[in-house]
Amino acid sequence: MRKVNNVLIKHIQRNIITYFVVIMFFLIGISSGAFTTKALSDSENGELIAYLENFFKIVDTKTIDNFAILKQSLINNLQTGVLIWILGVTIIGIPAILFLIGLRGFIIGFTVGFIIKQKGLKGLIFSIFSLLPQNIIIIPGIIVTGVLGISFSVMLIKSKVEKNVHNNILNQFFVYSTVIAIVYIFIALGCIIEAYISPLFVKYLSVYM
Fold first, then answer.
1. Is residue 80 within 8 Å of 142, Cβ to Cβ?
2. Which of 26, 42, 71, 147 is the most exposed place for a label (fewest CB within 10 A)?
């Protein structure tokens, strides 16, 4: 555990600026998503309200298919992880990785912002218990994956530009891919929480919404 901690600390220290940039894009995405809820037209707002109310009614009356939620969550997060992994080896993928991180923040910001806008304190409580448990694990995992992708892309750029830089690209690629796979295992734990724990809160709280 001590060795693992040392590796993690060194990794963060080496990539502190990249972490700062990635987290900033994520926060900008959240802010943009929350702000967008205020820019909705009356018709768009009405459609989303109807969808939200229908969602609460369905959740309250029907049995939740936990396995289907788990499957979809794993697919969604795997797609994001694989896309970031691919972008990391394209050299020009850095802007796209930052866009994906910002998009994930936008979705969360819009969802939470809209629920709170319509339901007030109840919406805040609902958002905390329905979205926070899984995202405590999933979001850090996505951010780490993004940082790894950007770092690998930067390393490739340096190897092309700086003649004095000699990296064993194949070994670096293997390490890069392995670490991202390990991070995804942790993300999968968040998916399990999303499928089997968060729905319990959703079903219980939907009665009061």
1. yes
2. 42
